[in-house]
Description:
alpha+beta; seven-stranded antiparallel beta sheet
Amino acid sequence: MFSFELKSAIDAAPHKVFAALTDPKLITKWEHFRWVQHDMRAGGHVRKRDDDGQLFDGEIVIFEPPFRYGVLWPVPKDTDDPDEGTFPVRMEFDIESHGDKSTLTLKAEGFPEQALADREKNSWGGYYLDKLRKVAES
């Protein structure tokens, strides 16, 4: 199995970063989902629906506000062909406090191929973490 890790400096306190990761109203501002439902507890589920109407359902494996959040999330094998199916990836978000600033570390593991890990790392590193940072800082 393959994995990746990314870090992002955010000019916001940990509770704001945690909210950007977990509050359904904030998630829709930085992710491509139009609808989000969140059980807000370890063992709960987070459900997201995209613009095409496809429903994604992940299991929350860590819920420790405001410093740790983890989810077992279905990642598409082929982003252009949803019929190819998904595979589960464990995504853990750790937030380190620096007063009114934070460092967010994302660890993702469970990719069956290095190319799929690289694809997701590029998406998160080049797009999602930047958008999440902007939401947390606003």
